[in-house]
């Protein structure tokens, strides 16, 4: 995403420089080179951050590649402060040199990393950065999400992504600086938890000033002493009391109120560092069989979003494209998305925060169980939670999907242990959000029971889930995806039940029912058929009381999959307002929730 927008939206500084653009590039499948000083043969130019498999990169090679090299010049002079080099994401293993000096190594294809490069800079200001990215296309024991291990994308898997696929940038920071911020809303006390981490020499008395404002009104402005490189405080906001006034400060999809924050690091009366950030006051929780937002039951209407584009793959074409995806999901009547098998760009989360769209964050799966696979998964998942903890839009964490990477949950204790360990570790790292241990089926440790059921017949869904009295039979005998819904020893304990994958109605302009590129769970021939089938499915799901939420498959067509509500270029297959009416349809809506007539099967 080659934009000039600040890449890290919750810790923003003034002095930074994008390194996106044209780099020298070459594949190194036989691993002929080990160091920038080798006589590397540069065969291509590539447009970073688009991966070499993408058309927009200028390379467009989707073959099997084990390694590739990048290099570019840049200008920056050491000026007595620190200079950091940041990478949004490099798939899968990266080594980075500046002027021939190794500055950082990182493993994990979906999380950011950075290195201080001050010591490696030349006084002249003319610098060179070189990157080696290694990514075995056949390695099924690494978190890879939807990246195919076959040459051509097939079934529900897509083209591979090798190397740099998120932005590269430089940042100047003071010698002593604010290294990290972490925000935790405490809804019950009308408080915001703030954790500020300070790095560098800490001489004299250091304090952190936190100023929180909304709509140009100061809500809090306090200083806290830095002890051991940290300042931890709960900041109490004035509680307006009555709900109408309270709601003006609460974050929700209907009213996405963000609180602006300015955090300043002081040494006595001298400013050392200042950053801009934001947070929000909201709570997410589980109460018996319902999902709760800000202390009230809230019906989740999610859409499955793969986060791919035809010409740029996992990298968004632009920041505006990320914003548009959020706007389109809301325009279709959804209040959230399930980002499927992808850790999305932080700029997407920023727009979801700002515009009001809830996000389920799901760890990309490995597809082979081993000690190495689990180690890799745990390490990267910890980095994911650390990166995205402070985004108010994120409401659920999902470490496993459909038993991918743990295929023998019914028979092998080690596989069960992995799911339970990741569930409890996630709840330990973040006790404020629900966690789904394994979404889809074979549930054990989980706060929500997610069911995947692609029955194309709405009456089939109605007969299976329409009566709350059938709940016990559902978990004892039914196997919607051919798998048991809960593992033995883990009966349904009253958690919310959600239909977290369903639908998958395929429609394509080709109108060829046998076309391989028109893959879907069911197919229709016309736009009218698509809207009619979608409306009937959503009527059943919205009015099935056993469900406290759902996630429809899917947001947009993705390569060979034609089961999106939008085409791959994000143009709608049927008018957005008609999709939205079907998405929101309730036979007996709560008073005031829906104000326009809803047309289902041409009836008001």
UniProtKB/TrEMBL annotation:
GO terms for molecular function: hydrolase activity. Residues 176-282 form the Glycoside hydrolase family 2 immunoglobulin-like beta-sandwich domain. InterPro entries: Beta-gal/glucu_dom_sf, Beta-mannosidase-like_N2, Galactose-bd-like_sf, GH, GH2_Domain-Containing, Glyco_hydro_2_cat, Ig-like_GH2. The keyword NAD does not apply. Transmembrane segments: none annotated. SUPFAM superfamilies: (Trans)glycosidases, beta-Galactosidase/glucuronidase domain, Galactose-binding domain-like. Keywords: Hydrolase. Coiled coil: none annotated. Residues 68-135 form the Beta-mannosidase-like galactose-binding domain. Pfam families: Glyco_hydro_2, Glyco_hydro_2_C, Glyco_hydro_2_N2. The keyword Hydrolase applies. Residues 284-579 form the Glycoside hydrolase family 2 catalytic domain. Belongs to the glycosyl hydrolase 2 family. This is Glycoside hydrolase family 2 TIM barrel-domain containing protein. It comes from Keguizhuia sedimenti. The lineage of its organism: Bacteria, Pseudomonadati, Pseudomonadota, Betaproteobacteria, Burkholderiales.
């Amino acid at each position: 995403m080659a934009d000039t927008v600040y890449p890290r939206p919750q810790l923003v500084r003034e002095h930074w420089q994008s390194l996106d653009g044209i780099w020298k590039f070459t594949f190194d499948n036989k691993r002929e080179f080990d160091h920038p000083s080798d006589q590397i043969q540069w065969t291509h130019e590539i447009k970073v951050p688009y991966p070499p498999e993408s058309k927009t990169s200028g390379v467009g090679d989707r073959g099997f590649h084990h390694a590739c090299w990048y290099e570019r010049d840049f200008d920056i002079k050491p000026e007595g402060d620190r200079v950091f080099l940041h990478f949004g994401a490099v798939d899968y293993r990266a080594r980075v040199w500046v002027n021939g000096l190794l500055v950082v190594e990182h493993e994990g294809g979906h999380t950011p990393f950075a290195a201080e490069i001050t010591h490696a800079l030349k006084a002249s200001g003319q610098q060179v950065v070189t990157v080696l990215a290694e990514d075995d296309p056949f390695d099924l024991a690494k978190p890879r999400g939807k990246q195919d291990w076959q040459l051509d994308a097939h079934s529900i898997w897509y083209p591979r992504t090798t190397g740099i696929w998120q932005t590269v940038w430089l940042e100047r920071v003071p010698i002593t600086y604010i290294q990290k911020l972490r925000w935790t809303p405490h809804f019950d006390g009308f408080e915001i938890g703030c954790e500020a981490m300070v790095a560098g020499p800490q001489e004299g008395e250091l304090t952190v000033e936190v100023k929180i404002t909304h709509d140009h009104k100061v809500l809090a402005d306090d200083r806290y002493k830095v002890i051991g490189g940290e300042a931890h405080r709960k900041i109490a906001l004035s509680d307006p009391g009555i709900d109408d006034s309270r709601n003006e400060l609460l974050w929700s999809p209907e009213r996405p109120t963000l609180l602006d924050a300015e955090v300043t690091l002081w040494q006595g009366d001298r400013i050392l560092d200042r950053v801009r950030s934001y947070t929000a006051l909201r709570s997410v929780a589980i109460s018996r069989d319902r999902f709760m937002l800000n202390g009230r039951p809230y019906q989740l209407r999610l859409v499955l979003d793969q986060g791919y584009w035809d010409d740029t793959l996992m990298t968004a074409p632009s920041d505006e494209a990320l914003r548009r995806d959020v706007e389109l999901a809301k325009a279709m009547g959804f209040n959230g998305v399930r980002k499927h098998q992808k850790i999305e760009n932080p700029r997407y989360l920023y727009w979801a925060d700002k515009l009001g769209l809830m996000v389920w964050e799901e760890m990309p799966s490995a597809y082979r169980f081993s000690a190495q696979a689990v180690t890799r998964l745990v390490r990267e998942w910890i980095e994911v939670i650390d990166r995205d903890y402070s985004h108010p839009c994120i409401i659920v964490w999902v470490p496993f999907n459909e038993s991918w990477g743990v295929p023998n949950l019914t028979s092998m204790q080690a596989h069960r242990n992995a799911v339970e360990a990741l569930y409890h570790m996630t709840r330990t790292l973040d006790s404020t959000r629900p966690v789904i241990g394994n979404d889809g089926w074979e549930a054990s440790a989980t706060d929500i029971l997610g069911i995947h059921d692609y029955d194309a017949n709405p009456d089939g869904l109605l007969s299976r889930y329409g009566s709350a009295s059938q709940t016990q039979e559902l978990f004892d005998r039914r196997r919607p995806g051919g798998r048991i819904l809960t593992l033995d020893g883990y009966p349904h304990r009253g958690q919310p039940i959600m239909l977290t994958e369903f639908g998958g109605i395929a429609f394509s302009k080709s109108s060829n029912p046998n076309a391989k590129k028109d893959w879907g769970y069911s197919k229709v021939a016309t736009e009218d058929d698509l809207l009619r089938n979608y409306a009937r499915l959503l009527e059943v799901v919205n009015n099935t009381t056993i469900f406290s939420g759902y996630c429809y498959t899917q947001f947009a067509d993705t390569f060979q999959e034609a089961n999106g509500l939008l085409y791959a270029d994000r143009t709608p297959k049927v008018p957005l307002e008609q999709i939205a009416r079907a998405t929101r349809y309730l036979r007996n809506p709560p008073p005031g929730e829906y104000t326009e007539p809803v047309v289902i099967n041409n009836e008001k």
